[in-house]
């Protein structure tokens, strides 16, 4: 299969990887043949990238770091929790979700089980979902990213549980906002921006009143927009004043936001997002955390369609964790635009003059 922009998809193409709804349920299943109506519908839902079947790349299968079953269950749990809070009276800091701590420790335990079962974790967030489901899928992606970093740092079980619950629920304060502010396509006015920024304190107040959620988890909600140089909010904390869990969650939040399609902008490629994080080292984020984070990112994920400096177009078929910027690329189109009947592969580790210039 290969991952392509929705504008490159044509009627008759078949979905190769399931697309999920905002609730975590299957929106379009693998194997479905797309009509123009389906394509237009995907565009209207804000889905800009899809995996499609392709005879030249049918053996290329991107593997998410967690299973589809784990992801669907996690998204469904986040969705149910968030929407139940939205339906409650907006009494600041007094919202209640019975056993929320246990529920999310169990969810993160399943995520952690998937992550721990891998010999080498190279993050490829291969999930596709509707734009309306961003908040719920984003929370799960942030928890996955945070879990990888927690494992890399050697956190013990209790530390991982606190980090994981905090990561899954870091944006819970968004439930206190009018939904129209979540994906507003125009610039926020000062009053709206102040209201949105208050979601950090709203989230902290929700979580700190839950009997089975630790204060460390609650601080992920409070501090995830604080920045290393003191430019963040709500308290303009600096460096080690920001708890490490919140620093990890904040970095994961920014990475997943950059690589996700939003109503007001196109997504960054994983490579562009990691470059942004490196540039923000010891400014927005602790540089050592950035280095550890980026070490586990597949900057050119398997099944990505890429353009080489030779003018050739190919699909990433393999990634060596020790050389993430130099994947193996299956060439499917020559520089003159000729499609290849018999594609061939180039291992960029062995061809130093050939580089990827962009992803499609």
From TrEMBL:
This is Phosphodiesterase. Residues 114-309 form the HD-GYP domain. It holds the Pfam family HD_5. PANTHER family: CYCLIC DI-GMP PHOSPHODIESTERASE PA4108, CYCLIC DI-GMP PHOSPHODIESTERASE PA4108-RELATED. It comes from Aneurinibacillus danicus. CDD domains: HDc. SMART domains: HDc. InterPro entries: HD/PDEase_dom (IPR003607), HD_GYP_dom (IPR037522).
């Amino acid at each position: 299969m290969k991952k392509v922009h929705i504008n490159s998809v044509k009627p008759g193409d078949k979905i190769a990887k399931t697309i999920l709804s905002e609730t975590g349920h299957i929106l379009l299943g693998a194997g479905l043949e797309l009509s123009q109506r389906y394509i237009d519908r995907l565009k209207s839902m804000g889905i800009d990238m899809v995996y499609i079947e392709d005879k030249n790349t049918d053996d290329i299968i991107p593997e998410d770091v967690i299973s589809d079953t784990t992801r669907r269950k996690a998204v469904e749990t986040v969705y149910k929790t968030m929407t139940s809070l939205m339906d409650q009276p907006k009494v600041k800091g007094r919202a209640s979700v019975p056993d929320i701590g246990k529920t999310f420790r169990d969810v993160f335990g399943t995520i952690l089980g998937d992550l721990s079962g891998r010999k080498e974790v190279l993050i490829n967030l291969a999930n596709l979902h509707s734009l309306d489901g961003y908040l719920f899928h984003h929370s799960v992606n942030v928890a996955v990213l945070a879990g990888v970093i927690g494992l890399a740092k050697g956190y013990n079980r209790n530390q991982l549980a606190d980090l994981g619950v905090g990561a899954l629920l870091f944006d819970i304060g968004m439930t206190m906002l009018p939904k129209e502010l979540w994906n507003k396509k125009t610039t926020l006015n000062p009053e709206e921006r102040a209201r949105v920024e208050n979601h950090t304190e709203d989230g902290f107040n929700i979580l700190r009143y839950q009997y089975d959620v630790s204060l460390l988890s609650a601080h992920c909600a409070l501090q995830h927009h604080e920045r290393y140089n003191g430019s963040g909010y709500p308290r303009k904390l600096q460096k080690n004043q920001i708890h490490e869990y919140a620093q990890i969650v904040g970095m994961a939040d920014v990475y997943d936001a950059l690589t996700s399609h939003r109503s007001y902008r196109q997504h960054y490629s994983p490579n562009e997002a990691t470059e942004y994080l490196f540039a923000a080292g010891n400014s927005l984020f602790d540089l050592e955390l950035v280095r550890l984070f980026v070490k586990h990112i597949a900057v050119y994920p398997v099944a990505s369609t890429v353009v080489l400096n030779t003018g050739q177009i190919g699909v990433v078929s393999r990634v060596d964790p020790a050389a993430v910027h130099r994947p193996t690329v299956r060439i499917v189109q020559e520089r003159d635009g000729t499609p290849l009947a018999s594609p061939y592969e180039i291992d960029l580790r062995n061809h130093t003059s050939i580089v990827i210039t962009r992803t499609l």
